[in-house]
Amino acid sequence: MSVAIGNALPQVKEHSLYVTGSADEDGAVGALEHFGLMLLMK
């Protein structure tokens, strides 16, 4: 699984399977939610 945060370099985003929101938009949380991993943390 490869995830890039929204404000990553274009080269990084182009090689990622999923691009989430920016750091200011809580992109890391968005990626965890997208892949259903937040349920494991509760």
Automatic annotation (TrEMBL):
Organism: Collinsella aerofaciens
Protein name listed in UniProt: Uncharacterized protein
InterPro entries: HAD-like_sf, HAD_sf
